[in-house]
Amino acid sequence: MALREQKKEQTREAIIAAAFGLFERQGFEQTTVDEIAAASTVSRRTFFRYFGTKEAVVFPDRDQRFPRFQALLAETQPGESPFGRVKRALLALAGDYMSSREQVRARRRIVDRSPALQAYDLELDREWEATIARALLPKRARKRDRRRAALIAGALMGGIRACLETWFADQCRGDLLALGREAVALLEPGVLATADHEDDQHHGAD
Fold first, then answer.
1. H/E segment holding residue 41
2. Domains of the chain: which residue ranges?
3. Cα–Cα distance for residue pair 59/117, rounded to 1 Å
């Protein structure tokens, strides 16, 4: 089984490398799945066994990172608030991005040249944002709680995009984790102040 899994991973990496090379040379829209399969010496059927769509091969780490993010959000540490869990999960992913910076840079170059991929990337961002919003909700969420969670999640995603833009502008040479901590530090006081204000209102009503 170990050898079989190793061969599967080698095939997957070969498909990714071939796809990225073709996308960078001739563009995403201009590249076909058949060309990727041929360049990686696999069949078209094998390509779709590893990646459901041509777009998916541009984001090969999504199937690992998104479940990991969800698992991190599900972890509960003593005294940790929902915002604290989200912060911990986001900073962990910043570390992951830094460990694969060359692939992330290559993906950025490909996405920047493709309107279709930009739209696909935005849809993925919305899924992450919705997941963050759900993680921020209390067990008995009211309409106001859902609105507040959506606003905070949107602000966090905006901060993430700003961090990534800064990182990309520096050719991914900087410390993305430090940028992430800075962004969260700017947002967290407002989030906590709002929570304290709502708690005071609630206790006052009681």
1. none
2. 2-56, 61-205
3. 10
Q: Name the CATH superfamily for 2-56.
A: Homeodomain-like (1.10.10.60)
**pLDDT tens-digit profile of 119-137?**
999 999 999 999 999 999 9
Of 176, 179, 188, the closest CA to residue 98 belongs to 176
pTM of the model: 0.84
Phi, psi for residue 29 in degrees, rounded to 5: -65, -30
Q: How many helices (H) and strands (E) does the chain have?
A: 9, 0
Place of tokens 């966090």: 156
CA distance 94 to 101: 10
Q: Which two tokens stand for residue 9?
A: 């991973």
Using CA atoms, how far apart are residues 138 and 161, in angstroms rounded to an integer? 26
Those residues with Cβ within 8 angstroms of residue 115's Cβ, 6 or more apart along the chain or in another chain: none
The alpha carbon of residue 189 and the mean position of all alpha carbons in its chain are separated, in whole angstroms, by: 24
CATH number of 61-205: 1.10.357.10
Tell me whether the CATH fold assigned to 2-56 matches the one assigned to 61-205.
no
Distance CA 22, CA 31 (A): 7
